[in-house]
Design a protein that fits this description.
- Pfam families: EF-hand_7.
- The protein is mainly alpha-helical.
- The chain has a domain of 79 residues: EF-hand (Recoverin, domain 1, Orthogonal Bundle), CATH 1.10.238.10.
- It has 10 helices and 2 strands; from the N terminus they run H-E-H-H-E-H-H-H-H-H-H-H.
- A two-stranded antiparallel sheet has the order 1-2.
- The longest helix is centred in the middle third of the chain and has 21 residues.
- The chain binds calcium ion (CA) (4 copies).
- The site of one calcium ion (CA) has 7 residues, from loops.
């Protein structure tokens, strides 16, 4: 980002930070993003803040710059993915996009993911909807990697069982085994990332 853009962002940040505390609260951030043409729904905004700031929810100027850089980068990518240039991703464009991000999801999971993405249900994924989903997928990936203590790219019964309490799910080892086999689509006795995504989507709806 060039100095001129930085200065411009500094000015709008200072304006949004009404009490000069040096950071923005989610509501202030939401308004600021809106004046810059980005309208995120609540969950999308939460994911965005978490991605940039971690658990710490206050957005400093430094974090805000990272956020704008991230959004600019994502928007560039979005324009490449939007093959017919209508500023939305159709389901087919969306499927290409997910593949390009190297999330190897199967059709069933893609359908579910598109449903979750298209929050205003117009059959298209807008830029904000797309970014929210991408951040959500990154979150799931992070969780998956932390659950995969052995680091071999799949969750076995023991790893899955130990992970369940993190989701506040109480289950015996036997229950865990059964749940795992329900989502183990390729029947190798372990959950790979797409299978795990499917599991997370399913419990999300409960
Ligand atoms: Ca399009
Ligand atoms: Ca939509
Ligand atoms: Ca493992
Ligand atoms: Ca499997």
């Amino acid at each position: 980002m060039d100095e001129q853009s930085k200065q411009r962002y500094h000015d709008i940040f200072t304006q949004a930070d009404k009490r000069s505390r040096g950071f923005l609260y989610p509501q202030e951030l939401k308004m600021l993003l809106e004046t810059n043409g980005y309208s995120f729904h609540e969950e999308g905004l939460e994911n965005l803040v978490e991605h940039i700031c971690g658990e710490h929810k206050k957005v400093s100027f430094h974090k805000f710059l990272s956020m704008m850089n991230f959004l600019i980068e994502m928007h560039q990518l979005f324009l490449e993915l939007d093959e017919n240039g209508d500023e939305n991703l159709s389901k087919a464009e969306f499927a290409h996009a997910i593949k390009k991000m190297k999330f190897e999801l199967q059709k069933e999971q893609l359908d579910l993911m598109f449903q979750i993405t298209d929050t205003n249900r117009n059959g298209l994924a807008s830029f904000e909807e797309f970014v929210s989903t991408l951040l959500y997928l990154y979150n799931i990936k992070r969780v998956f990697e932390s659950a995969d203590t052995e680091g071999n790219g799949t969750l076995d019964t023991t790893e899955f069982y130990k992970f369940l309490p993190i989701l506040k799910i109480k289950a015996s080892k036997h229950d865990a085994q059964q749940a795992l086999s329900q989502f183990d689509l390729d029947n190798d006795g372990e959950l790979n990332f797409p299978e795990f995504v499917h599991f997370i989507f399913t419990i999300r709806d409960i």
